[in-house]
Design brief:
Elements (H helix, E strand, L loop, with lengths): L8 H38 L4 H8 L1 H6 L3 H10 L3 H20 L4 H15 L2 H16 L3 H23 L7 H16 L25 H15 L2 H13 L4 H21 L7 H20 L4 H8 L2 H19 L5 H30 L3 H18 L1 H6 L9
Helix pairs in contact: 1-7, 1-8, 1-9, 2-6, 4-16, 5-6, 5-7, 5-9, 7-16, 8-12, 10-15, 10-16, 10-17, 11-16, 12-15, 13-15, 13-17, 16-17
């Protein structure tokens, strides 16, 4: 990757413009997640949908991640329409959320939400693929662009949380829809990527990536670490509340974790460690984090442990993107992102189901399972380290 000093001044301006527009789009993309994730179920309940049906509806995005999503990312890449696919999915997703807001019957909401989720969930892997193509083209850094997504996630959740006390819960859908519309408008500003045609040609067989051991190691290791957060995402707030912590304290613990994640993204351009070792460090950090969490530590220790989220999530994301950038030709990057998201969706869904059963019987002991997943991921990456460090751009090209 060329350094900024090696890029002509005109190209530097284009690179800065690319990075700024993508950072803004990341902000709207994850700002939507920040408003949707905590408050969409609240809206469903407010319009009178039964709790069991709410569970069915909210499971839809996870299902699309390992069914429809890989085909959409592959199609966008096949037709050389990555930016166009982002704009189309952004506008159609926004339209979908607007239509959802007009529905109040459970079945109608489900049907529209299925269609909307089918278009919305591919946006993150498509955006990451677009970002990595830009990294290769302009020499910009992924982390400083991506951090705005994490910051917007927190801002979206906080703003929506404040609005809960101001507007009726049945109107929350319009806040979610408004953020989706904003994202659609911002998507138009994404600049076209005229990436040079150098590099391996796109393989004709769509499963070529899945036959490459190095690529499989990347997506499995990343999915295991990210999937090891399943118990944390699902039961952390419940466990902390049961331990007597107040709502403000719980919110602060979540904020500490995301703040550490943002810091890692911000300083990532200064990392000199190879992406392989970043993922290994992230996996081992997750082992320590979940083992300590399983001990039900006091608040002071828990606050320190929360800082590890910057390593277990942020460092995993940085390392994984670096591995994909060096191991996967840019011509099939969207397809690679689709497979990564699908693998993560499958493992996270399974981990969530197992976490529920284990937490019901063993409480915080569920984190030992999460620690085991993280340890396996570190082992997978350790075993694949030589292949990934010495065989760049082999995925999909017979490597």
């Amino acid at each position: 990757m060329p350094s900024e000093s090696q890029i002509p001044i005109a190209s530097q301006a284009v690179a800065r413009r690319f990075a700024a527009r993508l950072a803004l789009f990341y902000a709207t993309l994850f700002g939507l997640v920040g408003t949707h994730l905590p408050f969409f179920p609240v809206w469903l309940k407010a319009i009178g949908i039964d709790a069991s049906f709410i569970g069915v509806i909210t499971a839809v995005p996870s299902l699309t991640r390992f069914t429809v999503l890989p085909f959409i990312t592959a199609s966008a890449e096949k037709h050389h329409a990555l930016r166009g696919a982002l704009i189309a999915t952004a506008f159609l997703s926004a339209l979908g959320f607007v239509i959802i807001g007009t529905q109040h019957q459970a079945l109608a909401v489900l049907l529209v939400y299925v269609t909307t989720a089918t278009l919305w969930t591919p946006m993150t892997p498509l955006t990451d693929a677009y970002a990595l193509k830009g990294v290769a083209r302009y020499g910009v850094n992924y982390g400083p662009m991506r951090l705005w997504g994490s910051a917007a996630f927190v801002a979206g959740a906080l703003i929506c949380g404040l609005l809960v006390d101001v507007i009726a819960a049945k109107h929350l859908i319009w806040v979610i829809a408004a953020v989706a519309v904003l994202g659609a408008v911002v998507s138009v500003g994404l600049q076209p990527l005229d990436v040079p045609a150098a590099g391996p040609a796109m393989p004709s067989n769509s499963t070529a990536l899945l036959r490459d051991p190095g690529f499989l190691a990347i997506i499995v290791a990343a999915a295991l670490i990210q999937g090891s957060h399943a118990a944390y995402y699902t039961f952390a707030s419940i466990a902390w509340q049961n331990a007597g912590l107040g709502g403000l304290t719980i919110a602060a613990l979540w904020a500490v974790g995301v703040g550490a994640e943002i810091l890692v993204f911000a300083v990532s351009p200064r990392f000199t460690v190879s992406p392989v070792w970043l993922v290994i460090i992230a996996g081992l950090s997750a082992v320590v984090r979940w083992v300590v969490t399983a001990q039900e530590p006091p608040l002071a220790v828990l606050a320190v442990v929360q800082l590890a989220h910057g390593l277990t999530f942020g460092l995993t994301q940085i390392g994984t993107m670096g591995l994909l950038l060096h191991h996967v030709p840019h011509t099939i990057m969207a397809r690679a992102q689709g497979y990564l998201t699908a693998c993560t969706g499958i493992i996270t869904s399974l981990a969530s189901v197992l976490s529920g059963a284990i937490y019901a019987r063993h409480g915080q002991g569920v984190y030992y399972l999460m620690a085991a997943m993280a340890l396996i991921s570190a082992i997978v990456m350790w075993l694949a380290r030589h292949r990934l460090q010495h065989h760049p751009h082999s995925a999909g090209s017979g490597g």
